Amino acid sequence: SSDLSDLIAELRADREERRKERKAMEESIKGIHNQLSKTVNDRIRTVEKSLEVYSENTSKSISVLERYPRESHSSFVGFPEAETSELTDDNDLRMNQSDRDLFIDCVSKTQGCRLTGNVHAHVRRDYTADELEQDRFLRREAGKLNAEAGQLEFVVRDLKICRLANPRPLPERSMQALERAQSARALPPLSPSSFPVLSRSLTVAPPRSRHGSIASNGGRGRGGNSRGRGGRGRGMSRDSTRRPSRSSQSHLSTATNDRAVSKPPKRALAADSSPGGRPNKVMNLSMLSPIHSE
């Protein structure tokens, strides 16, 4: 009985130890769960607070922008307000006015044309094909106005003809073109008497007809009929058919030379059609260089 009571006491002690271990494990698991939930809740609160701050700042920015009119939004980049919001956004992406003027000035002073080598002949890379055509047309119109005014008074800016408050003198190349146009307009018009007159000796000989050969055949027949009168007629007819006379040879050579000389080359006529060094292509104000206006 004593052994049985000892065994029962050991079992009770072992069960109590296991119960304590299980309780300690449950308490540790509960503490870990509480700590994890606390950490997660703190992190969630931090994220929510940052989102609240971001939304608050966004609302503040929107409220600040709404205080200003829409027309002043694009003034920060130097371009005016466009008709639509899409065009306004495109304009806002461009460089400002001062950087644009500096860039164009540097390009116009350093970059030369590939064909002529002259500066100020660059092409705007930020324009479309239609805008380039419109820009060229406006530059031609400004060039006409500058030619009439005799000074650099009109320029093209942003596809518009602007008038300078302080006009400047025209560039040297523009002055030379203007002087050439004025001198060409001052010359008298062409008259028929100014063209060179060909000599009367340089005339085209009429083409030979078949009557010459018919006449020679007729002479041969007459020579044959005069056989009874004398044998000399036949011999003369043979000589005339075999070898033409010297007069006929000289006439043929003269006609050939007349044909060759009577049709001078076109280049000679073109060169003679401008007596006194007058240019063949008369230049007027509308044909001036379209780059008179920067």
From TrEMBL:
Residues 176-294 are annotated as: Disordered. Residues 218-228 have a biased composition (Gly residues). Residues 183-202 have a biased composition (Low complexity). This is Uncharacterized protein.
